[in-house]
Amino acid sequence: MHIGILETGRPPSEVSADFGTYPQIFARLLDGHGFTFSAWHVEGGEMPASVHACDGWLITGSRHGAYEDHAFIPPLEDFIRQAHGAHVPLVGVCFGHQIIAQALGGRVEKFAGGWAVGAQTYDFNGDTRRLNAWHQDQVTKAPEGARIVATNPFCAIAALRYGTHILTVQAHPEFDRAIVRRLIDARGRGVISDTLLDAAASAPDTDTGQRQTFDEIAALFRAHAPAAPSQTVQTRTAQG
């Protein structure tokens, strides 16, 4: 099954030097499920020719706000609506969670309560799961028909399901503690309070929640695998 990764942002060099790009990180965490990967730098103006260019899609996080005026956002929203209408499997993480909600009629805002950074505890329909977060924006109104499947006191809409083919998560399941610590120094100091950053740096890792979430992502993709192998010609890789 061929998964397309839509890069809506890129990690700072302090992160990518040791951990790779976002497509490389996601491909590594989804390894072993029989997937192949291609990446498009959507933030830089690259878009797939069709929602059927891959068998499923994953939208990454970004330093941008979904409600901001950036050239890549309108075509990405159109792509999301087309994928939803065609029931093509789609996963969104952090900004991906937000832009999918906005494209389908929800609301995204800068949260007055401030930032969530590092390990957070979420209720996934009665299943307690710890995941690393890095966000100030939140989905404050879910689109019609979307189901809230994870929440916590700080983030009421922490994950959404749309039918059986879309899953979005506000947290960053691809971030382990080492990545969070690197982000703290690269992007956090001077922007987020030292108290919050120091607490995030010393928090235990979230490997159990990470595995659970990536198993769920993989299961969603596999549930919509094509009956025959994809005929997509792979001209791209997740090395971007």
UniProtKB/TrEMBL annotation:
Keyword Transferase: yes
Lineage: Bacteria, Pseudomonadati, Pseudomonadota, Alphaproteobacteria, Rhodobacterales
Domain Glutamine amidotransferase: 74-175
CDD domains, per the entry: GATase1_1 (cd01741)
A GO cellular-component term linked to this record: cytosol
One Pfam family linked to the record: GATase
The protein's name: GMP synthase-Glutamine amidotransferase
GO molecular function: transferase activity
Tagged with keyword Nuclease: no
Domain of life: Bacteria
PANTHER family given in the database record: GLUTAMINE AMIDOTRANSFERASE YLR126C-RELATED
InterPro entries named in the record: ChyE-like (IPR044992), Class_I_gatase-like (IPR029062), GATASE (IPR017926)
Keywords from the named record: Glutamine amidotransferase, Transferase
